[in-house]
Every structure is written in structure tokens, then in C-alpha cells.
């Protein structure tokens, strides 16, 4: 490849990255939310929170998906910031009166200035590693304290749903899990699609046995070819008998479409105090 062409490609990549980096802060600013980079465990995490609401003692925390982890299946990206921050859009469309916050995944929106411990495995094979769960849990603690909340509802989009399940296993303040197109059985999913095992990551199915009393609602898309209803159904099989779990497959929805658009309808009255 010639040097001028290489330089042009680099300029285009940097421009696309800058555009992705700017979208989250722009969306939250337009909504009147607070945006910040929060030191949390091993990482600096991008977080956003709605203005204070009088919705009781519940904080609803939305967890972002895996983002732009790969350019193509065998080439990791240089920056996992999402091309479309779906979980942030869900949070901004939250239909209830409870306090609301959002947490990005490690290394999203923080590179390069706040890229502490941001090696490529943190958005590829180790995207659900113990240190990721720990860092996001500490961020939840901070946001909970600020909101004056006593109870947490976790809402995870895609890989954020896997983290929601993993986070609950180590907490006593979560009263409900809601996931949207989440990869909840990593072993089944990677084997089904011929993907490399996520070495170093925790698997939600390994904690499912301890969640027999946890209310859970899992949304899937009928036309989701990235994850699919079968992955969530496989996870549900690992829950104890009688667990309060609901599987809601939405007709014609894909992995990305059209969750944020229809979230106020889909998520209406999901939980008391929601």
C-alpha cells in the first residue's frame, strides 16, 4: 500500500473514531443529562445520569453493549466505542419515573486520554472478565450513592445483558434484571457460530443456579442473527425450576432494530417503581 493511501485511510479511521466518541456526550447533552469519565476499579468508565427524579428509591442502570469490538470477525478494532450506543438510547427513552443512569463498557469513549488498562482483550476475549465486572459494579455503587437509591434494576443491551447477570451474582441490592438481545450462554453461542471461546471471560450460565429468586425479563428479536432467542433459551434452562423469568421475543426485530424506537412501549410497567 502506498504511503499517501495509507495516510488517507488513517485519517478516515481517526475521523470515524472521533465521530463515534462525540455521539454519546452529544446525546446526553441534548437530553440535559450529566456525562463524565468515572475512575472505577481498573478502568475509567464513561457514565451518564439523568437529572434527579422523584421516583422513589430505585435506580435503573443501563449497561452498554460490546460496541465496535471487531472490524471483521478476525480483526479487532482499535477503539470499541459503539457505532450506535443502543443502551444509551434506551436509557434516554426510559419510560418510568425512577432515577436513571447509563454505564459504557471499559475503553468505550475513553481512548486515548483515559484508556487505563485498555488492551485489546478487554473488548474481545476478556470483555466479561472479573475485573470488568468489578469495575462496573463500583461504578454502580457510585451512581447509586449519588441518586440516594436503595434498590437497583439492571438493564443490559447485548453484551451488557451478560454483564447484568454477572453483576447480580455479587450484589444484594438488585431487584430485577432486564436484558435486550443478550448473549447469556457464551459457551452455546460461540460453539453455535464457530467463534473462538472467550478465554478469560465469565459466563452467565455459571451463575444462573444462584439466581432462582431473581425476577428476570429477557427480550429477544425474532430476526436477530447475531445472538438470537435460542441463546437466551439455553441460559434459561440453567435457572432453577420455578425461577421468575420471562422470555419475550419481539416479531420482526433484529439485533439493532428497533429497540430504542419502541422502548417506551416495550418497557412500560416492567417493574414496580420502574
UniProtKB/TrEMBL annotation:
Domain of life: Bacteria
Signal peptide segment: 1-22
Entry keywords, A to Z: Signal
Matching Gene3D superfamilies: alpha/beta hydrolase
Keyword match Transit peptide: no
Name under which the protein is recorded: Alpha/beta hydrolase
Organism from which the protein derives: Telmatospirillum siberiense
Taxonomy of the source species: Bacteria, Pseudomonadati, Pseudomonadota, Alphaproteobacteria, Rhodospirillales
